[in-house]
Amino acid sequence: MQTRQHDLQSQQLVHGLGIISATAVLVFVTWLLLVPDPYATSNSFEPLRRAQISGYLIHPCVYCFLAMLILVNVPTRDNCLWGQLVLLIIAHGLITELLQYFVPGRACDPLDALANICGISVAVAVDRFRRDLFGAYSQLMRLATLIEGGKDLIIETGVAVDSRGLSVAR
Q1: CA-angle at 107, arms to 111 and 112, nearest 5°
Q2: pTM summary value
């Protein structure tokens, strides 16, 4: 019992750290998108400036990473809430791009907004695949547990249980 409670506490801690990291990355990305010259804020970005990597490559990569981090760490049990979360991420990409119009030295570029949406779309597809894969795995594990429990039930009570957990006459 204590091991199970310890596992639950560990999962909650990891989940909380995931939400904190997703929030931190969201704030950092927002800040980078709204400062006049993101390259001037740190020497860490100098290799990007020297490599002259296109913003049309940076934007989808950043938004794909951001969206995956949010979609994996924010709990969504139903598709409606998941869809609303995706719409909020898209709104963030569009609003920050529009706000760049008011930032000196930045421009509101519709192609950047499209690049943001492309990155989010990739993250959505990957997350959907991940959810389907883990959903199928979780159903198989439940079925295996049910079948294993059914074997114990047959041994103890003499009642057979089918794959759905229903009693079957022997």
Answers
A1: 20
A2: 0.72
